[in-house]
Design goal:
The protein has seven helices and six strands. With 189 residues, it is α+β, with helices and mostly antiparallel strands. The chain starts with a strand and ends with a strand.
């Protein structure tokens, strides 16, 4: 479905090589693939290294973010992201497990999807249940972006003034609210 052009942010990450390429190259190639498939990239963040969670569970992650514009509906864009992930060896076997490529639609304009009640339920989900449950529909903005330095640090490079439509905070304000210990190990490459 084609809609009015919207601006959003996609978070990119990975910690496993694909086709003999390290994660940084996979992220670059995936960005190029999105461009080739009609996503207009407005800005690209620096690349950051982030420790694997839980500690010692695997290689460090490489994280980045892009701001983009598109006329695709959120559902069509999510489908495109899943297709690109699959093309780069992403297997959805374990929630929050190691992966060759992770493309997360973080925000798409000021949309709250699927509705405010569902969004609030996922945002307030108990941390223990977050590891076991995955939504069966797109939730926007990403319900835990305000808690994740590995998302906010790169996002601050590409959309520092984006305003969270529920929390009423900019990316810079959410980033400033995180404990310093959560940011200490996120380093630019």
């Amino acid at each position: 479905m084609i809609e009015k052009e919207q601006i959003g942010v996609i978070a990119l990450g990975g910690n496993l090589s694909f086709d003999q390429n390290p994660p940084r190259i996979t992220l670059r190639n995936a960005t190029n693939e999105l461009i080739a498939r009609g996503v207009r990239v407005l800005a690209e963040s620096r690349y950051f290294t982030t420790p694997c969670f839980p500690a010692g569970a695997g290689p460090d992650y490489i994280n980045a973010a892009i701001s983009f514009s598109s006329e695709l509906s959120p559902a069509a864009l999510l489908q495109l992201l899943h297709e690109v992930e699959a093309a780069y060896g992403r297997a959805r076997e374990q929630r929050w497990g190691m992966r060759t490529l992770d493309l997360d639609l973080i925000c798409y304009g000021d949309r709250i999807l699927p509705d405010r009640e569902s969004y609030d339920a996922w945002r307030q989900l108990d941390p223990a249940r977050q590891t076991k449950l995955a939504p069966d529909q797109l939730i926007l903005p990403h319900p835990r972006l305000q808690d994740r330095g590995f998302v906010l640090v790169p996002m601050a490079d590409v959309a520092p003034e984006w305003h969270h439509p529920v929390l009423g905070l900019t990316v810079q304000e959410m980033l400033a609210a995180l404990p310093a210990r959560d940011l200490a190990e996120i380093r630019p490459l």
